[in-house]
Specification:
It is a single chain. 47% of the residues lie in helices and 11% in strands. The chain has three helices and three strands. The chain has a three-stranded parallel β-sheet with strand order 1-2-3, covered by helices on one side. β1, α1 and β2 form a beta-alpha-beta unit. α1 crosses α2. The longest helix is centred in the C-terminal third of the chain and has 19 residues. It is globular and about 40 Å long.
């Protein structure tokens, strides 16, 4: 399962520990429904967003979660679209990063 959540939560600034706690709770809830799934938490912009996502992954792993990871697509991000959204080339580049990771993770 691929999660790309919370990007807009950083619009007014770093949402802090509350963001991490909510994300962690959400992932635990989804895990309760999909015990065998691999989880990839996407970061689109790097910086504090990536730090927070990495903190979530670290906390989940400390709690026994083994099939969760962060994947940053920020290096592939191309913000030439409207309102900081990626344009077509940016979407394709991010998709290529995710595709490469999924192929490896799923042995495709």
């Amino acid at each position: 399962m691929v999660f790309n959540l919370g990007t807009n939560d950083f619009g007014p600034g770093d949402p802090g520990i509350a963001y991490e706690a909510a994300y962690e709770t959400f992932i635990k809830t989804v895990r309760s429904k999909y015990a065998a799934a691999n989880f990839i938490l996407i970061d689109m912009y790097g910086g504090t967003r990536l730090t927070r996502i990495n903190d979530v992954v670290t906390a989940l792993k400390a709690g026994g979660e083994s099939k969760v990871e962060a994947l940053s697509v920020s290096a592939a991000q191309n913000n030439l679209g409207c309102n900081q959204h990626p344009n077509v080339a940016g979407q394709a580049a991010m998709g290529a990063v995710l595709t490469t990771r999924l192929k490896s993770l799923m042995n495709w």
